[in-house]
Design goal:
Blueprint lengths: L10 E7 L3 H7 L5 E6 L7 H6 L5 E7 L14 H5 L5 E7 L15 E4 L5 H11 L32 E2 L13 H12 L5 E8 L2 E9 L16 E2 L4 H15 L9 H4 L1 H4 L9 H5 L16 E2 L2 E2 L4 E2 L6 E6 L2 E4 L2 H10 L14 H13 L3 H13 L21 E3 L5 E3 L6 H5 L10 E2 L1 H12 L4
Parallel strand pairs: 1-2, 1-3, 3-4, 4-5, 6-8
Antiparallel strand pairs: 7-8, 9-17, 10-11, 12-14, 13-14, 15-16
């Protein structure tokens, strides 16, 4: 049961007793939970128990009345008897072990004893639940007839990044102030209005800070650690490459095949049909770096009315920006432009075009859009909530950092739409661009790769 692995479940957190703020705050770093907090079990209305039917898992934390106290109200455990029997339950206890003399064990899949209700116990218990840390702890006393001295279950970390401190790794925190200085200098010099920085070393975060604001306006929203940015070409790694690795692992995709093996209907008898996927994904297949597709859709510098509309419908379904919808069938002409471009020498040359082809291949193999599959199969199970395509459908606009004022193509502030014109013309979901993320979730994706997919 522990540590909790896949997090694409509906999780309730029911906290009973004294201060539980650190426990809830730490859990929020790992997973989305619906929180219910009561001082004692008698305060919980029947409607709360009815609501619990909609959840897959309930974490019940029992807290001593204060950080100075170890006493947990003996009636608190009765809450377990009222929760739905088919609901998976995990109890976490912050206080004395008297509660173990009840029949708590008969209601729970797992029990974690934090012993004291101070912030460090709550923090580490939460991290242990989600596998950021493990434990070898055993009891040094008897707790009722079931749990004797020496009892304890070993859990090992599951690869999730731990939230720790520099001191734990022997790093002087004062040296990290240099990061602050660089970040603030960039803001002062107008290199950017704000930024977000996360540092993870040896499997744990030791630094997460945000600086400045979303724009240069005095009234602009301040950056916090939950703000999401357009991560541009990092989408190639955090999205397409990850998806390719996943599909190869499942035996659906092979780097040793050619484009014609997967999408012959697109490449036909062109020179592109014999491009090997291994050389293409290594940017060594002769593809041109990029094509400014949008330029052919402009007339006298303005959007062509035959290609764009101000409202969706009648074949104009691809949302390029606010109040701009592209004709859906125009995507076909984008691929024709690629195929009409002569291939160059087979040497290393970084290219976006590879990922126009991988997207076609992947979506054909999975039978759905790349963004949907990545969320369902990778991001949501990992508990990543701030890493998504199409951010306007996932986050409030105030959480999304604007990218720039586009003067050449869309003639508006790009806010919540992908900056890359080609990805925008695909409706915001491109193999080469389109993902938005905060620094924390992006670090988790990189950690996944460092841990060979675990």
């Amino acid at each position: 049961v522990l540590p909790l692995g896949k997090l694409d479940r509906k999780i309730a957190l029911l906290s009973i007793g004294g201060n539980s703020s650190e426990f809830k705050e730490t859990i929020s770093l790992f997973a989305q939970t619906t929180n219910f907090t009561f001082h004692n079990a008698e305060q919980i209305p029947d409607s709360i128990y009815s609501q619990m039917e909609q959840f897959d898992l309930c974490l019940i934390s029992f807290h001593a009345d204060s950080t100075e106290s170890l006493t947990i109200n003996k009636q608190q455990h009765t809450v377990l008897e009222k929760l739905p029997k088919n609901l998976e339950k995990i109890s976490i206890i912050f206080g004395e072990g008297e509660i173990f003399k009840s029949n708590i064990h008969s209601h729970c899949k797992a029990i974690l004893w934090g012993r004291e209700n101070h912030w460090m116990a709550q923090n580490r218990a939460a991290q242990l639940l989600f596998g950021a840390i493990g434990t070898k702890a055993t009891l040094d006393l008897d707790l009722g007839h079931l749990y004797k001295t020496g009892h304890g279950l070993i859990t090992v970390p599951n690869g999730r990044l731990k939230f720790g401190t520099p001191e734990e790794l022997g790093i002087d925190p004062n040296k990290l102030k240099r990061i602050d200085e660089i970040a603030l200098k960039g803001i002062k010099d107008s290199a950017y209005p704000g930024c977000q920085i996360a540092v993870a070393v040896k499997g744990q975060f030791i630094y997460r800070k945000s600086f400045g604001a979303q724009t240069y306006l005095d009234s602009s929203i301040k950056i916090n650690n939950e703000a999401v940015y357009d991560i541009a070409s990092i989408s190639k790694i955090a999205g397409s490459t990850l998806l390719g690795m996943h599909l190869q692992y499942k035996g659906l995709y092979s780097l040793d095949k050619k484009l014609k093996d997967y999408i012959p209907e697109l490449t036909k008898e062109t020179s592109y049909s014999n491009i090997g996927l291994r050389e293409m994904m290594a940017h060594q297949s002769g593809l041109t770096p990029w094509i400014a597709f949008y330029k052919k859709t402009l007339k006298n510098g303005q959007l062509s009315p035959s290609i764009y509309a101000k409202k969706a419908g009648n074949g104009y379904e691809l949302e390029v920006a606010e109040n701009i919808y592209m004709r859906t069938d125009y995507v076909d002409s984008m691929y024709q432009q690629i195929l009409a471009t002569p291939l160059g020498a087979k040497k290393y040359e970084y290219s976006d075009l590879c990922y126009y082809f991988t997207q076609k291949i992947f979506e054909k193999l999975i039978g759905k859009k790349q963004n949907t599959y990545l969320t369902e199969m990778i991001y949501a199970p990992m508990g990543l909530r701030y890493l998504r395509y199409l951010p306007r459908s996932c986050f409030p606009l105030t959480q999304i950092v604007p990218t720039e004022r586009d003067q050449a193509f869309r003639k508006q502030l790009i806010h919540g739409y992908v900056h890359d014109p080609g990805a925008a013309m695909l409706g915001g979901v491109g193999g080469h661009a389109g993902i938005f993320s905060n620094a924390t979730d992006l670090a988790s994706i990189m950690q996944l790769i460092l841990k060979h997919g675990k």
